[in-house]
Input
Amino acid sequence: MQRINDLFYRFLELLLILLLAGMAIMVFLNVVLRYGFNSGLNISEELSRYFFVWLTFIGAVVAFREHSHLGVESLVATLGRSGRIACMIISNLLIILCSAIFFWGTWVQLPINASMVAPVTGLSMAWVYGIGFFTGGGCVLIALERLFRLITGRVTDAEIAAFTGENMTIEQLAERT
Output
């Protein structure tokens, strides 16, 4: 099961690379066409915006899985193991709440977005903003799995270190400041 999970996240990382590359190519091509030939591709402006939205929200799920989001490590690092576990439980409960609200908001907004189309591509806006289902659902599932392992005592010291930022190298810490 872990292998399938890892393959899924490898696929997401590849998708992020493709979205970023597609966005960069479309923007570069449009800049060259505008300044070099006084023309441009309207579709590239629209698609690059949508790629950016998808890139951001898919990346949020991948970053959450890797404990790469912003945290308050200085507070958690002062606590002992049981305090850190309590903070992890509270954190995951809050994430479940916020992600569930985000998922629900996407669901409520879906009929409105489905009735609107993009001006250039004609793409239903439900495809653009529907990424909220993936992000909200993905974060809820990851947090539920973490919460289950925390409550059943299956959390490892490496996971606690990742949560508190203690597993980071000096270079990684310097990047975050």
User: Anything to note?
Assistant: The mean pLDDT is 88.
